[in-house]
Design a protein that fits this description.
Layout (H helix, E strand, L loop, with lengths): L2 E3 L9 H5 L10 E3 L7 H8 L3 H12 L5 H11 L2 H4 L7 E5 L2 E5 L9 H19 L3 E6 L3 H10 L5 E8 L5 H8 L6 E6 L3 H13 L1 H6 L2 E2 L6 H18 L33 E6 L4 H11 L4 E8 L4 H8 L1 E3 L22 H8 L4 H8 L1 H4 L3 E3 L2 H5 L6 E5 L2 H15 L5 H12 L7 E5 L7 H8 L20 E3 L3 H11 L3
Parallel strand pairs: 4-14, 5-6, 5-8, 6-7, 7-15, 9-10, 9-14, 10-13
Antiparallel strand pairs: 1-2, 3-4, 11-12
Helix pairs in contact: 3-4, 3-11, 4-6, 6-7, 6-11, 9-21, 11-12, 18-19, 18-20
The structure holds pyridoxal-5'-phosphate.
Pyridoxal-5'-phosphate binds next to helix 12.
Length: 496
């Protein structure tokens, strides 16, 4: 399998060549040249596999430059009961008739980013060892991404993590999760500023190309293709848990899914197969873009429901065809903070497919004008194609989150977090008779205690292993908003 850029550069690269990269050289994102198609027989065969077995089958289609035995070992080491707490790895539970929650948040940091990041840690270690190289990951976090990266990279050979976070602005639980790590290759830097200051420092350091090269600085942001690929697996796993596999139970009268993509490739998806829909709490469009890939491979997904919070860039797009990047003053701090985005960094991938993989048109839409904080409007003809891709959307507010958390607790004694509440609220609105709706649970409530208290008047449930985490010894350094000091710190600590 080869990879190309969404902005027209058709230089073909293999998986391991893009594994440690961010953007393509032309500023686009990487995508495979095509989506391998799964047929009825393949789905039947995959249905019986363990999660790691399924992950191996799917990843093998996209990773052709790691020997199969090595890839199998990496996947087996990643998706274990010890790490995710159950053999199902992503267990689905029934809430009501036709409405399900799929737990993606049972990994070490209690958020879905572990699903991909744990694999990335193992892939990075493997690839760096093969190349005899080292990598220093520099990042900024206000919560989920930073801790998922640290738990994925801790103790890994050849990798160090330097993670900036705004001092005193993360929840005590999130801070404890990160700062209690004692591994020598993990460096927590608490910056005396806000999250934007942390991001600006990362940008300033990355823009010093000489420093970046000399100290082998890299990132693990959400545009990394390997992260997206790892997420494709749980759409299949969710589908298998909710459907029976008997073709005669399919729902008649629904529009075909998995039809041949406009740029060629075989038509897929057994037309009489059972369908499901997924509701996805969305920010940077990474999670739901993996759903788009699964659907494009022929997994019988009816609707992909994009749920946003008050930061509704994506909801606006799917309703109107207008993509309008928000300024920071227009980006709200909400009680589902991991969805607080001003632009959706993975969104360009979907638009590339929507526009028949016309790299020139994508470059025009996402080029310099957009970077300066503008937007674009699709033509009516372009907008009309969205329906065939199954996307619909909706938004949710703080009041909706409180009501949804309360209702789910009162009716089902099931405690959900604020992001999952956004997904459930919008997923319910988009439910169709006869089509199971699977809402992706992207975090556990323990991470967002203040809103749970507000909704339920009690503290959130917490996995037993994390009781008392706030009292553990902490390992971090404090720094002013000063890129020079961060550089000096990295310089001192990046030698083996
Ligand atoms: C990151 C995150 C999201 C948003 O996922 P995207 O891939 O950015 O759309 C939703 N919920 C939680 C808990 C997250 O950590």
């Amino acid at each position: 399998m080869n990879y190309i850029s969404t902005r027209g550069d058709r230089t073909q690269r293999l998986f391991c060549e893009i594994l440690l990269e961010g953007l393509a050289p032309d500023g686009g994102l990487y995508l495979p040249t095509h989506y391998p198609q799964v047929d009825d027989a393949t789905l039947t065969r995959w249905r019986g596999l363990s999660y790691a077995g399924l992950a191996f089958e799917i990843l093998s289609l996209y990773i052709t430059d790691i020997p199969p035995a090595d890839l199998k070992a990496l996947v087996d080491k990643t998706y274990t009961r010890a790490t995710y707490g159950s053999d199902a790895i992503v267990p689905v539970r029934r809430l009501e008739d036709g409405l399900y929650l799929q737990a993606l948040s049972n990994g070490p940091t209690l958020a879905f980013k572990d699903m991909a990041m744990q694999l990335l840690g193992n892939l990075f270690e493997y690839q760096l060892a093969r190349r005899g190289e080292e990598l220093n990951i520099l990042g900024a976090t206000s919560g989920d991404t930073g801790s998922a990266a640290e738990y994925a990279m801790r103790g890994k050979q050849g990798v160090r993590v330097f993670m900036l976070s705004p001092l005193g602005r993360m929840s005590p639980f999130q801070q404890a999760q990160m700062f209690s790590l004692q591994d020598a290759n993990i460096h927590n830097i608490a910056v005396e500023g806000v999250f934007d200051d942390c991001q600006d420092i990362v940008k300033a350091v990355s823009n010093d190309l000489d420093f970046k090269r000399r100290h082998k600085i890299g990132t693990v942001n959400s545009i990394n293709w390997a992260r997206l690929l790892a997420q494709v697996v749980y759409y299949f796993a969710g589908y298998f848990q909710v459907t029976s596999g008997a073709p005669e139970t399919g729902v008649a009268g629904l529009s075909p899914v998995g039809s041949a993509p406009p740029w060629g490739g075989p038509a897929a998806a057994p037309s009489n197969a059972e369908r499901v829909s997924f509701a996805v709490p969305s920010g940077n469009f990474g999670n739901v873009c993996a759903g788009h890939v699964a659907r494009s491979m022929g997994l019988p997904i009816d609707k992909l429901v994009v749920a946003t919070n008050e930061n509704d860039v994506l909801d606006e797009f799917f309703r109107t065809g207008r993509y309008r990047v928000r300024a920071s003053a227009e980006t709200f701090e909400t009680s589902s903070p991991s969805m607080d985005i001003s632009k959706a960094s993975n969104f360009e991938r979907f638009v590339f497919d929507l526009l028949g993989r016309d790299g020139a048109r994508v470059a025009q839409l996402f080029g310099p004008a957009l970077a300066q904080g503008g937007g674009f409007q699709l033509t009516p003809e372009e907008f009309s194609r969205i329906k065939a891709f199954g996307f619909v959307s909706g938004k949710s507010s703080h009041a909706d989150r409180l009501a949804t958390i309360r209702r789910t607790w009162n009716d089902h004694q099931d405690m959900i977090d604020t992001h999952t509440a956004d997904g459930l609220k919008v997923g319910r609105e988009q439910q169709q008779p006869g089509v199971p709706m699977i809402v992706l649970e992207t975090a556990l409530p323990a991470k967002f205690a203040a809103t749970i208290e507000e909704a339920l008047g009690r503290a959130p449930l917490r996995p037993a292993a994390l009781e008392g985490i706030e009292a553990l010894p902490k390992r971090f350094v404090v720094m002013p908003v000063d890129a020079q000091q961060v550089k000096a710190y990295v310089e001192q600590h990046c030698a083996p």
